[in-house]
Every structure is written in structure tokens, then in C-alpha cells.
């Protein structure tokens, strides 16, 4: 089987794992290479462990961590997608899409009706992936209002 055809499993896991820590650092380095620090809205490990936060890890055939994402409960049936990141070696293998699909399934089962997210103006691949998954650009919301590097998107579930 070619690497691009390898299976991916996505499950709820702890963010306190060496492989996950490596991805968190990679995500930060990538974001800081594109944007000033004050324009990066990254949740730290402590925030990812809080009640109301579901943290997901995508793994490959031999259990290697390929990507991650988190869903943060909001109000009125809305939740926010955060810390989406796919390891560079796994890009192009639908890992991000697999994470989104699992998060959306779990969110729907929990009664969440809408998922919102913020990405950056220079994250073209991420914006394309979200759009392909049915997310549409919406006005900046919450802490992102007035942020020149932010793009907000949303999807209604079910």
C-alpha cells in the first residue's frame, strides 16, 4: 500500500504525549513563521486539558501521530475548532479531513449545531480544506474581531 493510501484513525487522546508535544511545537513554529506572535491564537497544553475541550489525534498504520485538532465548547450549540495541524510528512493524505469528519460526528452526537474556526490569511491550504469540508467564510467573531491576519469560517451541522 502506498503512503497516500495508508489508513488513518482519529481518536480522543491526551495532549500530553511526546508526539503530540512535537506537533504542538511544529504548529507554533509554522504559525510564528507566518504571523506576528500577537496574531497567533494557539491554545497551550493546559488549555487543551480544560473541561469542555475535546482533543483528537490522527494516527497512521503503525500508531504514529499524523495530526491533531481540538473542539472547544461554546454557547448556544456552537463550538470552535482549534489547534488543527497535520505533520508535514502526512500532508496530502486527507489527515486533516479525517480529523474534521471525526470532530463533526462527535459534535453532532453531542448536540452541537455549528462549528466555527479561525485560520490565517496566509493559510491557503487550510482555507481550501475547510471550504471543501463545507465551511464558509463568516465575519470575524470574538477575540478575532479587528485582526488583520484572521479569517473566520463556520459550518452548520446536520
From TrEMBL:
Q: Which GO terms describe its molecular function?
A: acyltransferase activity, transferring groups other than amino-acyl groups
* Keywords, in A-Z order: Acyltransferase, Transferase
**Protein name in UniProt:** GNAT family N-acetyltransferase
Tell me which domain of life the UniProt entry assigns to the organism this sequence originates from.
Answer: Bacteria
Q: Name the source organism.
A: Agromyces protaetiae
Q: Does the keyword Ubl conjugation apply?
A: no
Write down the SUPFAM superfamilies for this protein, in alphabetical order: Acyl-CoA N-acyltransferases (Nat) (SSF55729)
What high-level taxonomic lineage is stated for the organism?
Answer: Bacteria, Bacillati, Actinomycetota, Actinomycetes, Micrococcales
Domain named N-acetyltransferase: residues = 1-158
Show the InterPro entries listed in the entry.
Answer: Acyl_CoA_acyltransferase, Bact_Acetyltransf, GNAT_dom
Amino acid at each position: 500500500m502506498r503512503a497516500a493510501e495508508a489508513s488513518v484513525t482519529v481518536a480522543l487522546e491526551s495532549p500530553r504525549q511526546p508526539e503530540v508535544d512535537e506537533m504542538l511545537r511544529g504548529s507554533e513554529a509554522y504559525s510564528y513563521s507566518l504571523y506576528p506572535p500577537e496574531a497567533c491564537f494557539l491554545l497551550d497544553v493546559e488549555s487543551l486539558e480544560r473541561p469542555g475541550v475535546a482533543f483528537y489525534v490522527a494516527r497512521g498504520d503503525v500508531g504514529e501521530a499524523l495530526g491533531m485538532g481540538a473542539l472547544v465548547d461554546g454557547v448556544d450549540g456552537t463550538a470552535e475548532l482549534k489547534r488543527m495541524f497535520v505533520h508535514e510528512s502526512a500532508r496530502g493524505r486527507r489527515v486533516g479531513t479525517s480529523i474534521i469528519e471525526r470532530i463533526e460526528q462527535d459534535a453532532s452526537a453531542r448536540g452541537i449545531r455549528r462549528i466555527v474556526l479561525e485560520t490565517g490569511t496566509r493559510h491557503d491550504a487550510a482555507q481550501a480544506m475547510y471550504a471543501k469540508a463545507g465551511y464558509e467564510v463568516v465575519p470575524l467573531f470574538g477575540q478575532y474581531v479587528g485582526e488583520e491576519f484572521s479569517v473566520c469560517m463556520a459550518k452548520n451541522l446536520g
